[in-house]
Amino acid sequence: MIQGGSQDQDRFATVNGVCLCYRISGRQNAPVMVLIAGLGMQLVEWPESLLDNLRQSYCVVQLDNRDMGLSERLGRSYSALPEGFHWTRPHGAPAPYHLKDMALDALALADHLNVGRFSVIGFSMGGMIAQQMSILAPERVIALASLCSADGCPVASGTDENADMLTRFFVPPKDRAGQEQLFCESAAFYSHGAEAADAPATRAAARVLLDRLDEGGGDAGGYMRQALAITDSPCWDHELSKVLAPAFVAHGAEDPCLPVALGHRAADRLPRAELHIYENTGHWISDRCVADLCAWLEKTELMHPEVAV
């Protein structure tokens, strides 16, 4: 197993043809937990309560997906949405890469770190990537958590307000004030009001994310290319029945981005899934979700000792 390190140290590895940024923290020589971020999400956005709990039992690997955070950008900015692109239905705008490629990135990073078997937590798009990892390498994924994600059919069907919010990210404001306001409004929108757009903590978090995004090369079209990867990827729902790892599926009942029905369908398709639905919760990892996930991981380790080897 890999050794832990400073939880704030950014590291870099070129794997699967792309340079990825990642961090390692937690216990040395412990079971490995890989965290896969969602659309436009950076590795620093995981709830501290979740990280603190995981670090007590795991060697935690967080990574910036390709095209985001400090990882390599794979194209240029967009001045408008690609012709034919639709967020909520199949379209004719081809993606430069697919979710499978992003799953192969994460698996290649595990190879780079000499990690054989591991557990994986994915949020939103990250849950889709984690599912793909479980399909591509079933012998390596010990346990899977799919949070606020989908069921293997990647075309989303969120609200009109969600489509409007995402479009603002796909072709973001050019001025820093506009970008900061967008980040703050999105935090309030997706958290279902758990975080206020005008709260000092929300604004401070937005500035941290923008500083880090700028350090990595700015948006440079990364948000749009990740969205294309979701909407252009072939469906894999028929393959979820092959995932035999225990799975934790969680969803907010008021999710405006990926409706709660997708969480129900994912749990139906994953043979060993445990489903958790959270009322009054949006597209967000709530404190209740963190508590339930950590309890599930502890229970899963007791039922399947190989998790803790």
Describe, in plain words, how this protein is organized in 3D.
The N and C termini lie close together (10 Å). The protein has helices spanning 48-55, 99-112, 125-136, 160-170, 176-190, 200-215, 222-232, 260-269, 287-303, and strands at residues 11-15, 18-26, 32-36, 59-63, 118-123, 141-147, 247-252, 273-278. It has one domain (11-308): Rossmann fold, CATH 3.40.50. It has 309 residues and is of the alpha/beta class. It is globular and about 45 Å long. Helix 8 links the parallel strand 7 and strand 8 (273-278). The chain has an eight-stranded mixed β-sheet with strand order 1-2-4-3-5-6-7-8, with helices on both faces. Helix content is 37%, strand content 16%. Helix 1 packs parallel to helix 9, helix 2 crosses helix 3 (125-136) and helix 5 (176-190) packs across helix 6.
Task: Output the keywords.
eight-stranded mixed sheet; Rossmann fold; 309 residues; disordered C terminus; 9 helices
Percentage of residues in helical conformation: 25-40%
Low-confidence stretches: 305-309
Give the class from helix and strand content and strand pairing: alpha/beta
DSSP helix count? 9
Largest beta sheet, briefly?
A: 8 strands, mixed
The CATH fourth-level homologous superfamily: Alpha/Beta hydrolase fold, catalytic domain
CATH C-level class: Alpha Beta
> Mean pLDDT, nearest integer?
93
- Domain module count: 1
User: SSE order in H/E notation?
Assistant: EEEHEHEHEHHHHEHEH
Number of strands: 8
| Rg calculated over all Cα atoms | 18 Å
Which outline best applies? Answer: globular
Q: Strand sequence of the main sheet, in spatial order?
A: 1-2-4-3-5-6-7-8
Strand content: 15-25%
Q: What's the CATH architecture name? A: 3-Layer(aba) Sandwich
Fold-level CATH name: Rossmann fold
The end-to-end span amounts to 10 Å
